[in-house]
Amino acid sequence: MRELCLDQKLEGQNSIEALSLISQLPRLTRAKYASLLDLDPRLVKLGINISLNAYYRSIRKVVNPQGADISVIYGCSGGDAMSVLLATDAEKLMFVDITKVDFSEFENALTYLKDSSYEKLIIDVLERDDYFSDQTIRMGQTSRGKDDGKHYMNNLALKLLFNLRQLGVDLDGVVLTSLEEGIRIDFSWQYYGSHSTRQRSITFITADIANSDQYPKLLKRKLEEGLDIFYMKGAFFVPQLYSQFLPDIAKSIRPGGWIMTTDKTSMMESFNPEECLKQNKMEFKLSKSDETRILEEQNNPPYDPLCDIPVIQFNPTSRLGRTTGTDLSYWSFLNLRQKAFK
Q1: Cβ distance 54 to 37 under 8 Å?
Q2: Intervals of the chain under pLDDT 50
Q3: DSSP 8-state secondary structure symbol assigned to residue 270
Q4: Tens of pLDDT along 195-212?
Q5: What are the structural domains, with CATH classification, of the chain?
Q6: How far apart are CA 71 and CA 89, in angstroms?
Q7: What's the alpha-carbon Rg for the chain, to the nearest Å?
């Protein structure tokens, strides 16, 4: 490993040789060889899991290797801007979530995040709110709760804008626009390693992605225009309902575009979307590079009988909250399915 680190040609390359060797090392010693991984250094400074950092960037090499100006619909997005931008490098993104968020919440969150005197308060709020920082660092996740039986995300606007700041977005240049059915966030951001900064936009709308009959006009128009990627992970029980909505979305994906989903429920049940796609005469091919496959293996925690158990750590007094633990195959390990070229 030391010899590999001395080879400048392997620096930041995610070479298969380096990845295979790093995967065999104890987790706590891997950081010494981070120079061999293709990483976004802005997230390394924040303590984001380096293997997850490299994993999302490896996916971008598959779905958008040239950094084209592609469009994405992110189902059940919550406040997660980090993973989808790292994994797709998209220009236009539409976030769809059942949490209702007013324009004023985005305005207030942006004001607080731009004022350094609120920094401690913001960190305290996020730490109290479902261990947001720890979950983002370890799993790339943003959790939510329930209110009267319905899922929602606390402080979604704050989490989304905080996530953008973590990625290196200058919040002074962020422009918020109130739309009839949503909120648009315009910002500049440079994908690490690309040659230039590009203008991006996230349009947030409140809707149930699994209920295509009740999509708002803004989402319907986007589907009519066409998109390049449908992205969804950590979506509770929504994968059970693939047959109700995924074919409608898949029809709108351009040839060569992608469905990027984790295909697991929060109870760790697996649901393969290919059956409902085939029934609707749509051909998507499962694809995964060797680089991405090895990084998935590297992200899987090794067996350790003395390690902390996250589900107990997050619910120290509530046995009710200790349901089947979810892992990265629910939160982050994306199955990539490419639509056939005509």
Answers
A1: yes
A2: none
A3: B
A4: 999 999 999 999 999 999
A5: 68-286+330-339 (3.40.50.150)
A6: 9
A7: 20
